[in-house]
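Dig into this one:

. . .
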Amino acid sequence: MPSEHGKPKASSAHSFPNAMIREIYEQPQALRECIGRNVRDYSIFPDLLQPIESAIFAFKKIIIAASGSSRHAGLAGEIMMEDLAGIAVEVEYSSEYCYRSTHADTEPIVVVITQSGETADTIAAQRQALSRGAKTVAISNVADSTIAREASATLLTFAGLEKAVPATKSFTSQLTILYLLALFLARKRGRITSGVVRAHLESLSALPPEIEKALPSWDAQAARCALEFQHARAFLFLGRGVHYAIAREGALKLKEISYVQAEGLPAGELRHGPNALVDEKLPVIVLATRDPADPDSVLRYEKTLSVLEYIKSRGGKSIAIASPGDRAIATLADRVIHVSAATELLLPILEVVPLQLFAYHFATLNGCDVDHPRNLVKSVTTE
């Protein structure tokens, strides 16, 4: 592993300067564990959702309640479930759910997401959902947590202990669980065949070795990007579709550990006001990956290229996260980090890792404590 700019030393695979970078490097194993513990012989969640089996066939929509990084995972999960299973999904802030109107004429399943299982707002949201007669599914990393004990059914991410305050391996494990849930629901509702499920699962299982192989290169490239933009005090992150959730997460990672302003936006919204900020002092980080087999993904990519062209024409600086073999992107972005090829809904699991590394290196270059950022705690246990 590279040793400059605070990266792990090459002398030992286990010699990490802090918990955050160690947990970033633990993501391949965390994903293997998440998949292996939730899939058995191509059967997803065997018996785990049996307590809500009747609701699985009766519900009219899914409501996801979560906060922080978990909510960003929920935003990606919304698109996964809508695209794969054809289900209407709404994503709420946990802190707002209790104050919204009741479920009216719907019969939802409420999915609550929290790494610790002790997030006060999310526990309150689940209790409110149960009081309204809804079935709940808790997604957590901690089996004996409050959220897991009180849920109608629980799905565990099995990411392992995460000591650093910033969510890294817990976030990618949440994306993995939500992708599995989308596949599970799609199969239950007859949207896809068992053969298609098997193909999706094989694609998902290919991600951990791809991430493992790419991590040292992503690490070095992220460090160079951080060094180039070390003195910037604000950033924009842009993404379309499912990638918007990752833009939000990339911005959150950067702001929470380096104390600079960062905002994640849908790429198409740049020209609706935020473009007033674009100049040579404001770096824009753009998620510009694509799935060549998906026409919608290609269209989103082409529109994202036009946004990069616009940024360049205004003297803006940009970093792009792109797919392999993309030559067009190099003419538009100042820096490009390539991730492995994947299907559209799996790309977020890959592309968030370079953003985590960029945030890590930017923060350490600026002298910040990435494991214990000021004013933050691992689990918000008070409302």
Remarks:
- Residues 75 and 201 are 21 Å apart (CA to CA).
- The domain at 19-205 is CATH 3.40.50.10490 (Rossmann fold).
